[in-house]
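Duplicate of #3305? Posting structure anyway:
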């Protein structure tokens, strides 16, 4: 099996059993990719192309959340989360009982 891999992916691509793996991901690996499959055995077949979008996320540390009871209201604060672009949101869930 012959595979042509661009320089920036050499040593990080694994190919086999109808699968392609990209290892050691970086945030900059996010984007649109195209896989070209050219089957040369058993007669001529046109190449098959598959496009896919890869989105790489970095791990985010568990947030430290504090609450403060203010009568009928509760104040929630988030501290000590590590990551380059961390966004938190809050939502009200129905009671568990």
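Output from current build:
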């Amino acid at each position: 099996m012959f595979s042509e891999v661009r320089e920036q992916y050499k040593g990080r691509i694994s190919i086999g059993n109808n699968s392609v793996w990209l290892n050691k991901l970086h945030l900059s690996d996010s984007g649109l990719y195209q896989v070209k499959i050219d089957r040369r055995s058993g007669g001529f077949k046109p190449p098959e192309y598959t496009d896919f979008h890869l989105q790489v996320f970095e791990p985010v540390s568990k947030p430290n959340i504090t609450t403060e009871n203010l009568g009928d209201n509760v104040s929630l604060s988030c501290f000590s989360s590590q990551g380059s672009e961390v966004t938190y949101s809050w939502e009200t869930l129905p009671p568990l009982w």
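Confirmed duplicate; merging threads. The chain is about 0% helix and 35% strand. Strands lie at 13-16, 19-22, 31-37, 48-54, 64-70, 73-79.
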